[in-house]
Design goal:
This protein is an alpha+beta fold. Strand 2 (57-63) and strand 3 form a beta hairpin. It has a five-stranded mixed sheet, covered by helices on one side. Helix content is 37%, strand content 27%. The structure holds flavin mononucleotide. The site of flavin mononucleotide has 15 residues, from helix 1, strand 3 and helix 2.
Length: 153
């Protein structure tokens, strides 16, 4: 109990339009031999427990032994998490595909970390493009979609 008035906490600067910047990062990697769906389910369970605390949302795509993850949130939180993920022994050949630190809107605001099969990712990205308000988000998503449609060697 305190007789002081409780200050209202603001995570973001005050002012209706002053949203804080978000950072997003996309990487792909290869699952280590022996990693199966149960391991991926465990990763999702951990992510759903930890990501809300970190203010992180995103999508994890898994298919054909390849991971592809979009992570969005405050920059420091995303970078710390990415360091942890990169060091995870369940995958290798970790390659960052893109980063963007000027995004203001979340593309996946309600997904603590959603698992999407490779067969559905184009649909998910297209939906995100259709609902995104900022041109920057649309461009980033379109780039991902184009990359997915261009088979790599
Ligand atoms: C492909 C992949 C994606 C991951 N994504 C996340 C994530 O979004 N959030 C998270 O907390 N951990 C994620 N992890 C797990 C982390 O690498 C790490 O194991 C975990 O955060 C540690 O949690 P713990 O300290 O509770 O065991 C991922 C791991 C892999 C292999």
């Amino acid at each position: 109990m305190s007789d002081q008035s409780i200050p209202i906490q603001h995570d973001e600067p005050q002012g209706a339009l002053r949203e804080s910047l978000l950072f997003n990062l996309v990487y792909c990697s290869q699952a280590r031999a022996g990693v199966e769906n149960a391991d991926v389910d465990a990763i999702i369970a951990t992510s759903r427990r930890r990501n809300p605390v970190l203010g992180i949302t995103g999508v994890l795509v898994f298919g054909g032994g390849v991971f592809f993850q979009w992570i969005e949130g405050p920059k420091a939180a995303v970078m710390d998490l990415v360091k942890l993920i990169e060091a995870d022994s369940r995958h290798e050949l970790f390659v960052i595909l893109s980063t963007d630190e000027e995004v203001r809107e979340r593309i996946f605001p309600t997904w603590d970390m959603e698992l999407v099969g490779i067969e559905n990712i184009q649909e998910v990205l297209q939906d995100a493009i259709d609902t995104a308000c900022e041109q920057k988000s649309i461009d980033a998503l379109q780039l991902l979609l184009d990359r997915l449609q261009t088979p790599s060697e």
